[in-house]
């Protein structure tokens, strides 16, 4: 079977967890005897290394969902002769892939719903409140998506979802239940050496962008009455603003920012920490950093109602999104309770093993075979 993935970019060197998960998924499918290629639509953002699969680099002009349908259709038609099945990033290419099938596209399409639609994320971003023009634009986008969703439910062969939180949101489109399949991102679980966490060591790993909620975390630790050290690992457009906020809050002695690290360095951060904090203000669809942390035996605090809450399971605590006060309470609860720490540390690796790629690659192959057979 020849499988073509369509994604925005592939940054294996310094990209987020979804980039590494796609790379691992492709490698595992190749090991299972299948041919794999990845098409990147905004290839100037690629950061690649040697791969066992072909990367086809395209360069789309538009990132607007109602304008880029012809570009997506053209890309899929270009490669349909070679592909037995397409797997497209559902949050971005779903509507273009639907149009491709509507126009007679011959190759079946699977939508990978590992994130929310762009308009959903923007609606949750309070910065549009009070901007009538932008709010109306987002409303038009939502109405357009609802109309296109009727076609997607008929024409897309299957929908992969990464967590119950993701499925819950997409179920509003009333797509056929038999087309939904739970397939989390591929993860490599290898706890390695024993953990030796430093007392009261806290950790954040992720992109430094607004919805990740690092500002909520900084305001929460400012109120802590226990001694602590917080390491913030990542890069992003809000990095400078959050460094200034940490300085303004008088946290210079307690908080240290680090640039994004490769996996070997990240493992050291995870293993040295007592607790990973994932303070997203919007519900995280999944959270690869949660799996990474759990695989190193490090428990998690994440926002309620998110995919991350489901990923962490019994190895996690939750707090009310955007509430520095509630987050502070949960951090102190964890740091003050040795029995709770021990219990959650034991649960961490156990929970992480449920996301091992060896558990999910065979299930993904079953879905692919079913779709290809049906045509």
How many individual helices? Answer: 14
Instruction: Please give the share of residues in helix.
Output: 40-55%
Helices and strands, in order, run as EHEEHEHEHHEHEEHEHEHEHEHEHHH
| Rg measurement, Å | 21 Å
Strand order of the largest sheet: 3-2-1-4-5-6-7
Secondary structure class reads alpha/beta
Shape: globular
Low-confidence stretches: none
Query: Percent of residues in beta strands?
Result: 15-25%
- Most strands sheet: 7 strands, parallel
What is the terminal-to-terminal distance? 13 Å
Count of β-strands: 13
The overall pLDDT, averaged over residues, is 91
What does this structure look like?
- This protein is of the alpha/beta class and 375 residues long.
- It has helices spanning 17-31, 69-79, 90-102, 118-124, 132-155, 164-170, 214-222, 239-248, 263-272, 288-295, 307-312, 324-336, 338-352, 357-374; strands at 2-7, 35-40, 54-57, 85-89, 109-113, 158-161, 180-182, 201-205, 229-233, 255-258, 275-278, 300-303, 316-319.
- A seven-stranded parallel β-sheet has the order 3-2-1-4-5-6-7.
- Helix 1 packs across helix 14 (357-374) and helix 2 (69-79) packs across helix 3 (90-102).
- 41% of the residues are buried.
Keywords:
about 375 residues; alpha/beta; 14 helices; globular
Topology:
Elements: E1 2-7, H1 17-31, E2 35-40, E3 54-57, H2 69-79, E4 85-89, H3 90-102, E5 109-113, H4 118-124, H5 132-155, E6 158-161, H6 164-170, E7 180-182, E8 201-205, H7 214-222, E9 229-233, H8 239-248, E10 255-258, H9 263-272, E11 275-278, H10 288-295, E12 300-303, H11 307-312, E13 316-319, H12 324-336, H13 338-352, H14 357-374
Parallel strand pairs: 1-2, 1-4, 2-3, 4-5, 5-6, 6-7, 8-9, 8-11, 9-10, 11-12, 12-13
């Amino acid at each position: 079977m020849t499988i073509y993935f369509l994604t925005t970019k592939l940054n294996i060197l310094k990209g987020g967890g979804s980039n590494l998960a796609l790379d691992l998924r492709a490698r595992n499918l190749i090991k299972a005897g299948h041919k794999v290629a990845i098409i990147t639509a905004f290839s100037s953002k690629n950061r690649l290394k040697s791969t066992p699969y072909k990367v086809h680099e395209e360069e789309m002009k538009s990132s607007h969902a109602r304008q880029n349908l012809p570009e997506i259709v053209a890309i899929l038609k270009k490669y349909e002769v070679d592909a037995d099945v397409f797997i497209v990033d559902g949050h971005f290419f779903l509507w273009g892939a639907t149009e491709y099938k509507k126009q007679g596209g011959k190759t079946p399409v699977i939508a990978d719903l590992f994130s929310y639609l762009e308009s959903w994320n923007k609606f949750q971003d309070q910065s549009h409140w009070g901007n009538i023009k932008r709010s109306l634009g987002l409303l038009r986008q939502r109405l357009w998506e609802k109309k296109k969703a009727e076609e997607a439910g008929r024409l897309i062969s299957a929908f992969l979802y990464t967590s119950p939180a993701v499925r819950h949101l997409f179920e509003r489109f009333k797509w056929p239940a038999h087309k939904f399949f739970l397939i989390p991102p591929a993860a490599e679980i290898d706890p390695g050496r024993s953990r030796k966490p430093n007392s009261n060591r806290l950790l954040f790993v992720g992109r430094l962008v607004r919805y990740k909620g690092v500002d909520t975390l900084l305001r929460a630790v400012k109120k802590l009455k226990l001694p602590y050290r917080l390491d913030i690992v990542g890069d992003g457009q809000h990095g400078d603003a959050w460094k200034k906020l940490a300085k303004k809050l008088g946290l210079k002695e307690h908080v240290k920012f680090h640039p994004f690290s490769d996996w070997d360095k990240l493992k050291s951060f995870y293993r040295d920490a007592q607790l990973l904090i994932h303070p997203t203000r919007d519900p995280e669809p999944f959270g690869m950093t949660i799996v990474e942390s759990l695989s190193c035996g490090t428990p998690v605090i994440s926002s309620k109602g998110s995919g991350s809450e489901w990923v962490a399971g019994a190895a996690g605590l939750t707090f009310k999104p955007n509430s520095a006060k509630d987050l502070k309470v949960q951090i102190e609860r964890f740091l003050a309770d040795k029995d709770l720490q021990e219990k959650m540390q034991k649960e961490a690796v156990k929970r992480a093993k449920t996301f091992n790629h060896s558990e999910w690659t065979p299930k993904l192959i079953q879905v692919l075979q079913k779709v290809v057979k049906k045509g």
